[in-house]
Design brief:
This protein is an alpha/beta fold. It has one domain: UDP N-Acetylglucosamine Acyltransferase, domain 1 (3 Solenoid), CATH 2.160.10. Helices cover about 30% and strands about 20% of the residues. A 6-stranded mixed β-sheet has the order 3-6-9-12-14-15. The chain has a 5-stranded parallel β-sheet with strand order 1-4-7-10-13. Strands 2-5-8-11 form a 4-stranded parallel β-sheet, with no helix packed on it. It is an enzyme of class 2 (transferase). Pfam families: Hexapep (PF00132), SATase_N (PF06426).
């Protein structure tokens, strides 16, 4: 069940304080963190997306947020609690993406699709407590398990289990048991 909006706002601010050593105060986060602004706009747009007759308004809000923050989150995506987008410029989260709780996303990350069609799952599913490094590209209907780390500029095109450490092009699990 989604958190009450005020509780969710407090959780988001606390998550940034916990994950970003440069965050000095709640006021600074509320006023100056474009990643948070993008997440908050997404949360409104997602509600509208699920309401009859408001899908166009949801898309317009998401595009306004993209122009203001550099972060594009489709209002149809499903995003958990306490998402932190740090230095968010260039982040793209596609329509059928699912992002778990306590995920940290750095700049230039793409959760993209690899085929057309609106009735099927086309974008990645990310577990809880995952870190997506700068420039990482996760493409298609794949899953990255909870408590994983995806390195900078890794290209992930197939499923990986929990506790993975993914690096390279194409990504391999550096934490896999030999």
């Amino acid at each position: 069940m989604p958190a009450h909006p005020l509780r969710a706002l407090r959780e988001d601010i606390a998550a940034v304080k916990r994950r970003d050593p440069a965050a000095r105060s709640a006021v600074e986060i509320v006023l100056a963190y474009s990643g948070m602004h993008a997440v908050w706009a997404y949360r409104i747009a997602h509600r509208w997306w699920r309401s009859p007759g408001l899908s166009v308004a949801a898309r317009l809000l998401s595009q306004l947020a993209r122009s203001l923050t550099g972060v594009e989150i489709h209002p149809g995506a499903t995003i958990g609690r306490r998402l932190v987008i740090d230095h968010g410029m260039g982040v793209v989260i596609g329509e059928t993406a699912v992002v778990g709780d306590d995920v940290l996303i750095y700049h230039g990350v793409t959760l993209g699709g690899n085929r057309r069609g609106s009735s099927s799952k086309r974008h990645p599913t990310i577990g809880d407590d995952v870190v997506l490094g700068a420039g990482a590209k996760l493409i298609g209907d794949i899953s990255v398990g909870s408590h994983s780390q995806v390195g900078a500029n890794a290209v992930v095109t197939h499923d990986f289990p929990e506790h993975s450490v993914l690096t390279g092009v194409p990504a391999i699990n550096r934490n896999a048991r030999v």
